[in-house]
Amino acid sequence: MNSTTLQPIFRTENRPTTAVQRFRQPADIFEALFQSIQGGETHARPTLDLTPDSPFLPFLEIGYALRACLEKPARHDYLLQRLRPHLSVMIGSLPASILPMGMLPKLAPLPGFRRLEDIGDDEIHDWLIQEGGLIYGEMQRFELENYFDAVKPFLPPGGVMVDLGSGLGKVVMTAALTLPFIRCVGVELLNYRHRLAQERLVRLLTLARQGLDALPERLTLDTPLKLPSGVMTTGQHLLELGARIAFIENDMFKVDVRGASLVFLYSTCFGPLMDAISNKLARELPEGALVSTTTYPIKHPAFRLLQTYAPGTLSWTSVMIYQRVGPQMAQPASEARYLHQPDIDAWEARVREELVAMTGGV
């Protein structure tokens, strides 16, 4: 399938909705369930745990060292000096975690934390890559409707969908409602996001059970059922919804995805990680599996581009759909493909303006 394939008509905004008052048919259940998982992009973001046994302790140490320079105008020149070599892996003008609304705790650093002068460039480089992965974003409902309309023609029946960096679980639960996947799995590193996804799932399944119990005609495993995507399946899709959804709290690089038929990556903040992600997927995915990315394309010989969607069509950002081709690759591709270097002078001018606005620095 190629770019000449007939394209769906994409939505440009969310449709008006009203709360579901009664469950007369399965479509009412679907609508109530979709409404229940919206709004995650506005969730409160707690700060990272600052305790001696926190898994983020190395991240916090470097973050505090950078923030200490941010908060003192006399140290701004040194902060820019240390960040300047790493613009190729930095998202935005300044790291989001060290800004006033970032995820670093407002408490003082633990005793023994190093100053920025004692932290090496390699450590700062790795910290910036990790920091980018902590930034959170969600597609709106209409964008996910567009997405599954777009990916549907490329998917065989059934299969396993995996979301790497699943956040609050919106994509995973939308996938499980929209298409007849055998299983939908979300992998999330941050505990608070994983916990919120689990809480959302409990609410989703409770509401689904209430809706099923309220239907005038009982839904059975074999009852024909039309999904929101238009695909026909059976009542088993709703009756066993909980068995088809799972959330895993783990690093995406530590979870094997070799059983996946579709891997979803909301990769807008994963630019510095794309080489490592591409190599992982080339090593683990079977031939024919699909991968979709946002903003950043996959530049790896193991993946063939099936379709690309420009910003403002399917979603606010670009979306690409790929297929795994050829045999599994035991070794990573030798070429580094995601290095980019913003204009240093323009970056520095922009940062200095932001620093003046934040701290009154010069």
From TrEMBL:
> What Gene3D superfamilies does this protein map onto?
Vaccinia Virus protein VP39
Question: Source species, please?
Answer: Duganella sacchari
Q: What is the lineage of its organism?
A: Bacteria, Pseudomonadati, Pseudomonadota, Betaproteobacteria, Burkholderiales
Q: Which InterPro entries match?
A: DOT1_dom (IPR025789), FAM173A/B (IPR026170), SAM-dependent_MTases_sf (IPR029063)
What keyword terms does UniProt attach to this protein? Methyltransferase, S-adenosyl-L-methionine, Transferase
One MF annotation (Gene Ontology) recorded for this entry: histone H3K79 methyltransferase activity
Q: Name one GO biological process term.
A: methylation
Name this protein carries in UniProt: Histone methylation protein DOT1
Among the Pfam families in the record, one is DOT1
Q: Where is the DOT1 domain?
A: 135-202
